[in-house]
Design brief:
about 850 residues, alpha+beta, Beta-Lactamase, 5 domains, 7-stranded antiparallel β-sheet, 37 strands, about 25% strand
């Protein structure tokens, strides 16, 4: 026996498990609203399902058609129209429509919606309720024109609400925008007199369950004509495979009983929700409510859907303009920051300016940079002690995207220690290993959020045991939010991502700069090492030549040693002058004064300078120093400076071709006789400048004193200038001291700590010449301390500061505690020798002569003068 749907017993209301709204299968409810009927077809157009009200909507001929071909009860022309529309279905067009069609060819008009369902199709039909001849799309055009002239999202939303209310007659139309946490805010509304307003109020995320949001992205419009309509069932409930009919794309699908009760609690009898999408995601809704049941026909609803789509485009345009403006600001910030980090700058030197540029782009109260263990801050931030733990927390986030929270303590409880300074953060990872961050912080803002009812009671327990019912109260409920900052907007997050890319570019730039600097330093070091090797070889060759040539005219070992010592010290003094001024050009008068000062500064006023002082280039300094050392030495020993009344005139002048002439004329000295043989000193005077500098030399042994003229080429002359007054405050010792004079004798043991054996032996010989009775040498701190601890008791000590890979500091401290006086020896000046940590001591500069050593021993009260 066959039962028609209309003859079946009353169907029990669909039972829904209300224990979890988020798990309710609202697309599988198996019911449609009574104002429409549904027919589901197989791929070969056999009826698989039908709603039980088909006979009421269409007629008795479709009362029981499950299992029958569609052509048995619909005319051929109707089927032809349906097939033509179904041909347009694809991924982009999931629903096709027909309006005002006489489906049964009996004069009655219907609107139809059709969509694909698996391998089959679903047809939904509803009687045409509006006027036969009208143009609903004409109502959309002026609304869109107004929207196009606006650039404000809020203004667009308000215009859309007003236009939609005018089109449909709903008592309340709200524009509802979702936030990142799923809750929503009413940003615009249009009301009739009897409807309550919700403008500015927030609705919790639970008001629209997750699965409902998913359906809103599939079907843009959902209309409920009467909240008291229980709906009509679809039969059979399951297909032969046991699956219920998927109603995700159905336009007449019944609604969850929970949502219907929710609307009743708001005093709503009919509603319509229209999705606003942004890049495929649910941006918001246009929610329409009415205090009485109201059915909008399908053609009107389609025009509303079109309005919502165009509104989405206009909102996208407005947001794109805002994004473009933000992108421009971000690019300007990028350009400013990149210009700040120039080739010779760093984070540390530019952080304040970089932070200021970032703060212009994204509003914040503090900025911190944590890079390679360095913590730089500006404004209100966690302390340097608090941040490392926060950085470890941030390490758990993604390394390739920004991380933001407006309530730090909700995700990082330890942040409670700095909530007085920072409650929200926006972290930008700017490197991977180690994980470095630029973090923006915001202060707490205790703000009031107005909810449409208590958000913590959006679903309440009802009278039916453990089943849930939706909340009943929508009265204004204000929540004061504490411990949080102002939320980070989507635009700010996009700006932060753009900024992150900029900072990564800077990190790469700084890394590349550091690598280039290391390469330059390495190349410079190699050049310096090569230059040092070259200079050392030249100096060694020069000294070897000085030794060989000095011995040719020496009458004794003592005279040979004295001459060689003087020449080597002349080179040393010349080198000291160059290094003191970092190899800058030096006046020739200064060189001559230094050479004379090596004998006695009391004779400085006996050299008279005239003309213009010649400033010579560093490459000319060594040969000129040797020449004037020989001139001064000969004058002190045999010439004008040998007697009190003698003097030397040095006149310098520069010709038009740039050559500088230097005249050395001695007056008032002993009678001069030309030498019978030519020694090495004379060779230096006569041949050095011509040979090494390409200049000239002319030496005459006049009866009244030696006269010499030197011509120095312009390529080694930097400039000529007036003579400066020489500094004669520091008296220098004689180069030929008499160490055997009474009172200048040592009497006791001495300790030498020196890692170079030749220097140690030379120093030991000097000390023994001065009378030291027992001189012990040690090349290292360990050996020196061993000598002292084994009972060696020196009268004094001479300590080389640098002993290879160690210093003599430990020995100096030991001697200081034992009250043993000591000298420090170094090739550096006191400022460069690195002796700040040493006990107070006299420093003798290497290379030193016996005279230098004697004066130093006198200074520490070991050698009595």
């Amino acid at each position: 026996m066959t039962h028609t749907p209309d003859s079946q017993p009353p169907v029990q209301p669909h039972t829904v498990d209300l224990t979890s709204c988020d798990r309710e299968p609202i697309h599988l409810l198996g019911r449609v609203q009574r104002w429409g009927c549904l027919i589901a077809l197989t791929s070969d157009w056999i009826v698989r399902h039908q709603s039980i009200n088909c006979s009421k909507v269409l007629g008795p001929q479709v009362a029981d058609v499950v299992g029958h071909p569609l052509h048995e009860f619909l005319p051929f022309e109707t089927l032809k129209k349906i097939r033509a529309q179904l041909a347009f279905l694809d991924e982009n067009r999931k629903i096709v429509r027909l309006f005002g069609v006489d489906f049964l060819e009996d004069g009655r008009l219907f609107d139809m919606s059709a969509h694909q369902n698996g391998t089959g199709f679903v047809l939904e039909l509803e009687p045409k309720t509006g006027p036969g001849q009208r143009d609903d799309l004409a109502q959309v055009q002026p609304i869109i024109a107004k929207l196009s002239s606006s650039s404000s999202v809020a203004q667009m939303a308000q215009l859309a609400c007003e236009g939609l209310q005018s089109m449909t007659g709903f008592g309340r139309v709200m524009a509802y925008q979702f936030t990142t946490d799923g809750s929503g805010t009413v940003i615009a509304e249009s009301l009739s007199a009897q409807m309550q307003g919700y403008l500015g109020m927030h609705f919790p995320a639970s008001d629209i369950p997750r699965q409902a949001r998913a359906l809103y992205t599939k079907t843009l419009l959902r209309h409920i004509a009467d909240v008291d309509d229980p709906g009509v069932p679809i039969l059979p409930a399951h297909d032969p495979m046991g699956n219920p009919l998927d109603l995700s794309l159905s336009v007449s699908r019944s609604v969850s009983p929970i949502h219907l009760e929710y609307l009743r609690n708001m005093g709503v009898k009919s509603s319509m929700s229209v999705s606003i999408l942004r890049k495929g995601q649910l941006w918001g809704l246009l929610a329409c409510h009415h205090p009485e049941p109201m059915l909008l026909d399908y053609e009107k609803r389609t025009s509303v859907e079109l309005l919502a789509q165009l509104l989405s485009y206009e909102l996208a345009r407005a947001e794109n303009e805002i994004e473009a403006e933000n992108a421009s600001r971000a690019q300007n910030a990028h350009n400013r920051i990149m210009s700040l980090i120039s080739g010779d700058s760093s984070w540390e030197s530019n952080f304040d300016d970089v932070a200021e540029s970032i703060a212009r782009l994204i509003k914040c109260d503090g900025i911190a940079l944590y890079s390679d263990g360095t913590y730089l801050t500006q404004g209100s931030t966690p302390s340097a002690e608090e941040f490392p733990a926060l950085a470890r927390f941030l390490n758990g986030a993604s390394q390739s995207q920004v991380y933001a929270t407006d309530c730090i303590t909700s995700v990082y409880p330890a942040g409670e220690t700095f909530t007085d300074r920072s409650c929200g953060l926006l972290a930008l990872p700017i490197s991977r290993r180690p994980r470095d961050y630029l973090v923006l912080f915001r202060h707490e803002i205790a703000r009031s959020v107005t909810w449409a009812g208590n958000p913590n009671k959006s679903i309440e327990y009802g009278p039916n045991g453990s089943r849930l019912t939706p909340r009943k109260s929508f009265e204004t409920w204000r929540e004061v939010v504490k411990g949080c900052s102002a939320p980070w907007t989507a635009g700010e997050l996009r700006a932060a991502e753009s900024l992150r890319v900029t900072l990564l570019e800077i990190v790469l730039k700084l890394t590349d700069m550091a690598a280039q600097e290391r390469n330059r330093a390495q190349e410079q070091q190699e050049i310096l090492i090569s230059e040092l090797n070259h200079r050392v070889r030249n100096i060694l060759n020069l000294i070897r030549s000085l030794m060989k040539q000095s011995q040719s005219g020496a009458q004794s070992i003592e005279s040979f040693t004295q001459a060689l010592d003087g020449r080597i010290n002349a080179l040393s003094r010349a080198h000291d002058q160059l290094t003191k001024d970092q190899y800058s050009p030096i006046p020739l008068s200064e060189l001559i004064a230094v050479e004379l000062g090596a004998f006695s500064s009391k004779d400085m006023d006996r050299i008279v300078f005239a003309g213009q002082d010649a400033v010579i280039a560093p490459k000319a300094f060594t040969p000129m120093a040797l020449v004037f050392h020989e001139l001064v030495t000969n004058s002190v020993k045999y010439g004008a400076l040998h007697v009190p009344q003698g003097r030397v005139e040095v006149t310098m002048s520069q010709a038009e071709d740039g050559i500088v002439s230097i005249d050395w004329i001695e007056r008032g000295g002993p009678v001069v006789n030309a030498p019978t043989r030519r020694g090495f000193g004379s060779t230096i005077i006569e041949r050095t400048i011509p040979h090494e500098l390409g200049g000239g030399a002319d030496v005459r042994y006049a009866t009244g004193g030696l006269e010499a003229r030197f011509e120095v080429p312009p390529n080694v002359i930097v400039e000529t200038r007036p003579f400066a007054k020489q500094n004669t405050d520091t008296e220098m010792p004689s180069i030929t001291p008499d160490v055997d004079q009474p009172g200048h004798r040592l009497n006791g043991a001495a300790l030498i700590v020196e890692d170079t054996m030749i220097v140690a032996l030379d120093l030991a010989g000097m000390l023994e010449d001065l009378g030291a009775t027992d001189v012990q040498t040690a090349p290292s701190v360990a050996q020196a301390l061993r000598l002292l601890e084994d009972g060696f008791n020196p009268m004094f000590a001479v300590l080389d500061v640098n002993l290879g890979n160690e210093t003599s500091l430990a020995v100096a401290e030991y001697l200081a505690k034992a009250n043993v006086p000591f000298l420090l020896a170094s090739g550096y000046d006191r400022d460069e020798a690195g002796i700040d940590a040493y006990p107070p001591a006299y420093l003798v500069r290497k290379p030193y002569t016996a005279v230098d050593l004697q004066d130093a021993l006198v200074a520490i009260d070991v050698l009595k003068g």
